Amino acid sequence: MLSPDIHKLRGVIIGLSEGGKKEVNNALIFNSLALESEPEKARVRRQLNGMTRQNELSRVKPGQYRYNPQAPKRRGEGYVRMWRAVRASTGTFDISEIAAVSHVAASTISKYLKYLMSIALIRRNGKKGLNLLYSTTPKGREQRETPYPPVAIRDPFALERAAMSRLARVFFEKDLYSDPARKAVVKECRIILQRFDTQNEKGD
Fold first, then answer.
1. Tell me, what's the pLDDT at 50?
2. Which of 10, 116, 177, 197 yields a CA-CA distance of 20 to 30 A from 42?
3. In this structure, is residue 204 part of a structural domain?
């Protein structure tokens, strides 16, 4: 299984934390995502660190977080800093140089540069060792306003993913013989069944 992208990871955290009401930890997140290999877990840790730097998560202690539902998801300031660093570069530049100036994660910069190339504001311009080099195009030098990538389409299964995350938390943390746990399981399963149970639609 591949590690989830940031949107799926955010959905899991929202579900496990009940929208920021409860703290979450690495073990809960890994279990909810069924991650087993260390490379998968390491990638998610990096994503969690990125969310912490953007104030979307607060680190309570190592491996334990609190979700901040009020944090901006678009990270507009990061795009502004990246674009300023790109425009300020003379000649060629690589991802590490933009990261050093903008203080944005290299993975985010890589995606942003791909977007800038797709709209012809920058282009690839050789390599330095193993690092790809880029340079701004004439169109890019004329572009002063920060270009923003299109906002991702909302996950159509966000409610169901959140319900599944809360359900996983019940199984990992609650006494499954208790009445509160039973009620919680029924509640979350109903949310999931409302989306996937097609028996009534077929008349069965």
1. 82
2. 116
3. no
